Amino acid sequence: MEKMEGTGTERTKMGRPALHTPAQLIDRLVSAAGAILDEQAADADFSMAQVAERAKVSKRTVYTVIASKEELIGHIVRRGAESVTAILEQPVPDPASVRDVLSRFLHQWETFACGPRAVAIYVMAIRERSRYPAIGAAYYRSRNEHGLQQLTAWLARMHAKRFLRIEDPAMTAEFALTMVASERQRMLALGMDAPQTPEQLAQRVAAVVRLVLPESSVA
Fold first, then answer.
1. Which of 139, 155, 170, 143 is nearest to 92 (CA)?
2. pLDDT score for 2
3. Whose C-alpha in 44, 94, 110, 132 is 20 to 30 A from the C-alpha of 68?
4. What is the DSSP letter of 129?
5. Range of 101's domain?
6. Which keywords, in A-to-Z order, does the entry hold (predicted)?
């Protein structure tokens, strides 16, 4: 309550409280855009107006927290990538656990990178590069660059702990991510392949781990 100067009366400050905090609103928009991408897959072509409608907010409200379609794409991809790379933050108690952690990470990375949402964004980044040139950069920085940095750092930590003997963590990380997902994603984007079965994915991950971490590299 606030007293009006010069009178003994009081008045209530008027104002409509915000329905969402900025963080909650971003969560809502990311969820709405992700749902559209999952539904439309490689044919996805959403607009900010469509995202606003799905999130049940006004387009003006969207732009109070998200400046552009490219920024929204960056949020979507970064959140997916961070949920996967969180595996690399878990404790590794001994050298025998190194392969298991790497296998679990690569399994989740392929599932993320080759899922409908990621394939839709990949296709969109190529198709709309003339209209939205920053989508490709947002996609690459939020997914490829982030994953590469996190896996490189993890391999370097394992080397420092003497759990691994590895000369070039960055190159090893690049090989692993490329072999487990990059070519598969391109084929899915072109409609030339179908998602792998769990058995096929397990075989692929096991082969990649054997290639990048041969027996001689594990302490």
1. 155
2. 42
3. 110
4. T
5. 70-217
6. DNA-binding, Transcription, Transcription regulation
Alpha-carbon span 15 to 142, nearest angstrom? 38
pLDDT for residue 124: 84
Other C-beta atoms lying within 10 Å of the C-beta of residue 116? 17
Encoded amino acid at 23, one letter: A
Q: Is residue 9 part of a domain?
A: no
Per-residue pLDDT reduced to its tens digit, 78-121: 999 999 999 999 999 999 999 999 999 999 999 998 888 888 88
Q: Domain containing 82 — which CATH number?
A: 1.10.357.10
Please tell me the distance from the alpha carbon of residue 176 to that of residue 162, in angstroms, as a whole number: 20
Cβ atoms 139, 190 nearer than 8 A = no
Task: Provide CB contacts within 8 A for 21, sequence distance 6+.
Answer: none
Report the alpha-carbon distance of residue 195 to residue 189 in Å, rounded: 11
How far out from the chain centre does Cα 186 lie?
Answer: 17
Find the distance separating the first CA and the last CA of the chain, reported in whole Å.
69
Instruction: Give 3-state DSSP helix, strand, coil % of the chain, rounded to 5.
Output: 70, 5, 30
Q: Looking at the domain assignment, is residue 120 inside a domain? A: yes
Residue 204 CA to residue 107 CA, distance in Å, equals 9
- Nearest by Cα to 72 from 113, 37, 40: 37
Nearest by Cα to 120 from 36, 181, 194, 26:
36
Contact status, residue 166 vs residue 159, Cβ threshold 8 Å: yes
The residues pairing with 218 across neighbouring beta strands, listed in sequence order, are 164
